[in-house]
Amino acid sequence: MFSFLYRAFFHFTNSRTNDTMAKFPGVDYFGFDGLLSEEEILVRNTVREFVDEKILPVIEQHNRAGTFPMDLVPAMADLGLFGSTLPQEYGCAGMNNVAYGLVMQELERGDSGVRSFASVQSALVMYPIHAYGSEEQKRTWLPLLARGETIGCFGLTEPDFGSNPGGMLTRAEETSDGYLLNGAKMWITNGTIAGLAVVWAKLNGVVNGFLVEKGTKGFSAPEMKGKHSLRASVTSELILQDVLVPKSNRLPGGSGLKLPLSCLSQARYGIAWGAIGAAMACYDSALNYSRTRLQFGKPIASFQMTQEKLVRMLVEITKSQAICLQLGRLKDAGKVRFQQVSLAKSNNVAVALEIARSARTILGANGILDEYPVMRHMANLESVLTYEGTHEMHTLIVGEDITGIPAFT
Amino acid sequence: MKVAVCINHVPDTETKVKVGPDGLAIDKTGVNFMLSPYDEFAVEEGLRIREKFRGEVVAISLGPESHKETLRKALAMGADRAVLLKDEGVRDSCGVAAGLADELKSLAPDVILFGKQSIDYDDGQVGTLVAEMLGLPSVSVVVKMDIQDGKVVCDREIEGGHETVETKLPAVFTAQKGLNDPRYPSLKGIMAAKTKPIEEKAALPAAVRVAAIRMRKPAAKNPGRIIGTDKSAVAELVRLLHEEAKVI
């Protein structure tokens, strides 16, 4: 019943791994838990525990080595982290979007790369197959992807077409036995490890989605090396040279740029939540450090400048939480607008990055070591700020929305 | 095989608890609650028994409405149904055991599982008291269970080692850390738990035979003392460890 007894139980909370790492207490200054359902809280707490017990003990070594923790994929699948909002008939959990957001938050509290893995699998691979795939494509691929037996990737961005995907050069040509794909994609999360790629290519000038399986002749996915960011995540190129896929591999449910953009909107929604998790990890680390680090004979938490930094972090986390919770409720009610997702993604990632930098200053020189998670999150968030729609593009999307004048065409 | 798992809803292990204004109980403001960790082993063992022998796992908790949260977790892990024995009052271990025993009598499970203690009051009495009230054998602090033909062979943790014991079903078992590796509730399990029933009924009233009269936190530890910063301090350090702290 008393705290000293509780400390003695530390080992308990990590009973599955016998790891002595502290349990994350959460950040909830405004009592947002009171606005969550019992299931949403249980989902959040379960993934929180999983991150504490399985991801945090190994993430720094993967980050150093530049490897993704592949051995965690079966456990993530058992938990139901892939495609968790999709219906149960395809082997998924059928959760609402707020619960999905909380999953993303907790995963990114572990690492943006791990969250990216789940985001890509769920929002960029399973979502388009579910939304635009044939019944046969859904029955074939969704259960495999949900069980993590197939890893997916999403090929939209090209070396010369990032913010302007409509200019893509990748082409599909209809032949008697299928579609012939030619082109190159870049910055593709999971590309090298994926068994299935959702590739976007122009067919008669119109963007269409194609399912390309690993091992298809002419298709390769070399890994991009030398990253300073998202090191615990695989980033690849996709090279398509006369890749022939059968007719049944085109996503028949629509065409046009709006298809891949709708997937990105799903992923950005998860990123808005995920950024809160990275911010929480940095805030928690800085708060704990400041209480125990002594200078001039007292904890640095007692200095006004440190307190101001910590409070700014908490303020921004709290505002991000409010944004995401309402965004999720709107999404569950079918009322969300993509411009709102843009506001949430751009704000939450930008403040998370500021929080990471501020946390690093509280940790002083220790902040640059991988004994603490702060610098890893900071480096990761540099990618997150830019991918899935740059911070600048999201700003201009909201800018167009409120002025009625597009600034980027 | 029918398995009953009796579980408790306790303050989260990360909580820094404060004694409430009456000095008799903790201040629950801002305290998160969770399934007691030893009870988690009991739930997991119940699920494994069902996976092996079929049947059902019933999770039971005695306490206020808030215990439903913990019952929901047991359902999300895979329990088939739950019973909440509602009681808003203060009970001693005997009172909790009486309420649970009353329910278990009509449920008549083959296996009754508890955690070896709840990590709030740490009484460690309820499982054993229930066994006594029901006239059943009880095995406490179990780290291994093997059921075969109505017989159960258990390893118990004892000082410095393990003891292997045998008993017959029905019986009561209390789980110790090491019994198993509890599963995470899957997201599908959490969604499915929404549709599983939690039956609510009033707990059998019980007299309080042991009542708290005071609760306090342990005295704060004295701060450390720096004897010196170089090797000249060694002799003094050894003397103090020997004469004052009496540890060497």
Overall description:
The complex is a heterodimer of chains A (409) and B (248). Chain A has 409 residues and is an alpha+beta fold. Chain A folds into three domains: 2-146, Acyl-CoA dehydrogenase/oxidase, N-terminal domain (Butyryl-Coa Dehydrogenase, subunit A, domain 1, Orthogonal Bundle); 152-249, Butyryl-CoA Dehydrogenase, subunit A, domain 2, CATH 2.40.110; 258-403, Butyryl-CoA Dehydrogenase, subunit A, domain 3, CATH 1.20.140.10. Chain A has helices at 3-8, 10-13, 38-65, 73-79, 97-110, 112-132, 135-146, 258-292, 304-332, 338-363, 374-386, 391-403, and strands at residues 152-155, 171-175, 178-189, 196-203, 206-213, 219-220, 235-245, 294-295, 298-299. In chain A, strands 1, 2, 3, 4, 5, 6 and 7 form a seven-stranded mixed beta sheet that branches. A two-stranded antiparallel ribbon of chain A has the order 8-9. In chain A, a hairpin with a 2-residue loop joins strand 2 and strand 3. Chain A is globular, with a radius of gyration of 22 Å. By secondary structure, chain B is of the alpha/beta class. Chain B has one domain: Rossmann fold. Chain B is 28% helix and 27% strand. Chain B contains six helices and eleven strands. Chain B has helices spanning 37-53, 67-77, 93-107, 126-134, 187-193, 234-243; strands at residues 2-6, 9-11, 33-35, 56-63, 81-86, 111-115, 138-148, 151-158, 161-168, 171-175, 198-202. Chain B has a nine-stranded mixed beta sheet, with helices on both faces. Chain B has a two-stranded antiparallel ribbon with strand order 2-3. In chain B, strand 4, helix 2 (67-77) and strand 5 (81-86) form a beta-alpha-beta unit. The interface between A and B is medium-sized, with 35 and 35 residues.
